[in-house]
Design goal:
It is built from ten helices and no strands. With 218 residues, it is mostly helical. The chain has two domains: 180 residues, no CATH class; 32 residues, no CATH class. It starts with a helix and ends with a helix.
Length: 218
Amino acid sequence: MLVHFVLESNAVAGIAAVGSTDGGYSQRDVILLITYILMALVFSFLCSVAEAVLLSITPSYIAELQGRKPKLAALLKKLKQDNVDKSLAAILTLNTIAHTVGAIGSGSKATVVFGSAWFGLFSALMTLMILFLSEIIPKTIGALYWRSLAGLTAQFVQILIWVLYPLIWISEFLTRLVARGKTTHVFSREEFIAMADIGEQSGKIDQRESRIIQNLFR
């Protein structure tokens, strides 16, 4: 995503520099610059959180929700287990649109507002903001607080799927061509044994329970 943003910004810098002169800008240019920056950061932040939350949700958590929140459990099952490709396609589509429009718009307006001589510094600062504010920080938040954010994320992703359905359909078609009917297994026996060992080490289950689980899968 960072490489994509930098390439888009650099590409538009030359175009904007041809049609503008340093120092001649209006209040509208400043407002548009801020709008494009926020578009790139805010939507990318939401997409990164949603992606991290979605990938962190486990089948056991969905099963545990069945008794307490059956509607949420059904939605999470559909988004994570039944149609994870569609969910990820929706998230990545919005993220790509936000980065592309944000890069082109902010690069163009930054050249008008600050002048072409400052475009390199602007690109560097935007790259750092993209890295920390829309990649590292939101994905860390999603990975740490996915249980609390699961409900909001499910609703957010479902809305994205409705809005971006034509683009998602194209993505699914291409995915089917690559996958060619291949399926993946959720867990292997070895992974269940490893999970029991990790649960024992972290104190979630005691040694006796861990040994029982491991013996069942040997």
